[in-house]
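General statements about sequence and structure are easier to judge against a single worked case. For one protein, we set the task of working out the structure tokens from the amino acid sequence alone. The sequence in question and its structure tokens are set out directly beneath this paragraph.
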Amino acid sequence: MEPILAFGLEVTKWLQGTFPQLVGFFKLMSALGEENFYLVVLPLIYWCLDKKLGKNLVYIFLLADGINVLGKHAFRGPRPYWLDPSVGLSESGGYGVPSGHTQLTTVIYGFLAVWYKQGWLILLAVFMIVAMGLSRIYLGVHFVHDVAAGLLIGLVILTGFFVWRHYSGSRFSKLILGRKLFWAVMVPLVLAVVYVIVRLIIGAPNTAVAWAAYIPDAELNGLEGMATAFGTLLGLGIGINLEASRTRFMVDGPIWQRALRYLLGLAVTVAIYA
């Protein structure tokens, strides 16, 4: 076993053995990083609270998710419970590195902290990122280096977005609809093409490893993940630009109206997602 994997297993075993009373807390934290949780919360922001914030959050979330799928297949790293089933207090699909939960938590909560620049939000972001990373290590679904990679990539995505927004955001908003739609198509297309190129370069996975039994499901999970990321990024990019040009709906209205809008929209979203 590689030293970095052995070290990661020892960290997980130490955490589980030293803090057995925290299993419920860490399972709760991990649940707050699931895609289904964001599927419920992010549309609420976009449809009912703050449209500008919501569309930025949803887009960067989907972009980060697609990049995470790409990263997992570039590295094809195992998960701790693949090597030692005794540490598996939870299960997760796909390869291990980088940690998607940590990466997406870094992007979402880091985005909110930068957007609002409130001290309590910065503290919340730090807490959520640290707690999420620890939860994934504790539950045996990620190694320490998986979490570190997720954190680093999340920070790079976050920094890149705000640098782009600072220097090019206003210029992009002034483009004609056709050019906006061009970029809405190009972003997911480039992501998908890079994914295909990476798969062609690295070739078939190495099945002469102890965790070979998990590889077929991990490969399929990656293909499905990239297809989902491509489709949702494409649909969202086209949709928000058409909405801004044609519909321009407002999030204002009484509570009952916002609630009805949210419930109807969520029902459609869940139906499509399922």
Remarks:
- The chain has one domain: 8-273.
